[in-house]
Amino acid sequence: MKKIKVITIFGTRPEAVKMAPLVKELEKREEIDSKVCVTAQHREMLDQVLELFNVKPDFDLNIMKAKQSLTGITTRVIEGLEEVFESEKPDLILVHGDTTTTFAGALAAFYKQIKVGHVEAGLRTFDKYFPFPEEMNRKLTGAIADFHFAPTESSKANLLREAVKEENIFITGNTVIDAMNFTVDNNYIFSTEILNTIDYKNKKVIMVTAHRRENWGEGIENICKALKQVVDSNEDVELVYLVHLNPVVKDVVYKYLEGTSRVHLLPPLDTKETHNLMNKCFMVMTDSGGLQEEAPHLGKPVLVLRDVTERPEAVNSGTVKLVGTDMNEIIENANKLIRNQNEYDKMSKAVNPYGDGNASQRIVDAILYSFGYKINKPKEFNL
C-alpha cells in the first residue's frame, strides 16, 4: 500500500502547541508521509513553539504583516496553500480548532477536493460573534471537514446535531494534554527571573490572561479594577498578569495595575514558561479558551472572564466557572476561592474532562482506519 500523504497546517502559537504532539505521532507511523505547513499567522510566538517541540516545517507561507486584517490573512493563506497543494497533492490535510488559518486552510483544500481532518472539532458557543471570529471559523471548517476529531462527548453531540455522519466523528480527547506531558516539570526553573523569586508555597499566586476582542474597552477595565481590589484586600495573594502586547489591552492594564503591590505585569511567556507557571500557581483567571483545558489538567481552578464558553465540559465538571466581566462577580468568586478551602478543593480536585495524553495516537489511528489501513475503529476517549 502506498503511504498516505498528510499535510498538517497551523499558524498560531495555540495551534502549534496542540498540533506538535500530533506531528510527532504522524512521523512515527510508517504508513504515513507526513509534511508540515505553517502559515505564520503569528510569527514570533509560533517559532517559539516550533523550537520547543523541534518541529521543522516543510513549507512556511510567512504571511504575517503589521496590522493584518482577517481578510488579508484569509486570502494570503488560500493563495499560499494553493501552490503547496498543487505541488504536493496530499491525500489529507489536518487543521486545528478555530483560527483564520484553520478555516482558510480547510477552504483551500475544499477547492482542490482534498480531504480535511479537523482536530478539536465540534466546540460551540452558538453565538457567531462570541468568540469572534473563532466561532464561525470553527463551524465553517466543520461544514467542510471529512473527518472530525472531537475532544469530548459533548463536542460529538454538537456535530451530530449539525447532521455530521457519526462514522466520521472520533472522540479523541484534546491534544493539549499530550503537549503538557512534555512541557510541565515540577522542578522547573524559569528563564523569566522574576518568576523564580515568587513564594508559591506561602502566597496564593493568581495567573491572569485577558485580551479577547469582545472584552476590549469596558470589559478589560472592569477586569483590572476587580483584580486590583482582590489583591488589595487579600494580603496573601500575589498576581502575575501576562499582558497582551496589543496597546488596546496593554494600555488599560498598565493604567489600572502598574505599581500595585504584589502585582507583576509581564509580557506573554513562551509555552513552557506558561505551563510551568500554571503548574505552580494557586488559580487561573482568563478569557482564553486553551487555558480552560490546560489548568484543570494541573488541578488549578479557573475563573473564566467571559459570559459564554465553547468548552462547557469543564464548567459541568466543576473545574471552571464563568464569571464574565462584571466587577462584583469577579471579586466575589475570586475571594471565595482564596478564603474558603472547601470551595477551592471542590474545583481543584474535580476531574479534567479533556484527555489522558493519548489524543494524538487516537487521531492517527482514526486516520489509518478511515483510509483502510486498520480494520477496527479505534477506541474512543471517555472519562
UniProtKB/TrEMBL annotation:
Q: What is its EC number?
A: 5.1.3.14
Q: Does the keyword Isomerase apply?
A: yes
Give one Pfam family. Answer: Epimerase_2
User: Does the record bear Isomerase in its keywords?
Assistant: yes
A Gene Ontology molecular-function term? UDP-N-acetylglucosamine 2-epimerase activity
Q: Which InterPro entries match?
A: UDP_GlcNAc_Epimerase_2_dom (IPR003331), WecB-like (IPR029767)
Enumerate the UniProt keywords alphabetically.
Isomerase
Residue ranges occupied by any UDP-N-acetylglucosamine 2-epimerase domain in the UniProt entry = 24-367
Q: Which family does it belong to?
A: Belongs to the UDP-N-acetylglucosamine 2-epimerase family.
Give the protein's recorded name. Answer: UDP-N-acetylglucosamine 2-epimerase (non-hydrolyzing)
Please give the organism: Clostridium rhizosphaerae
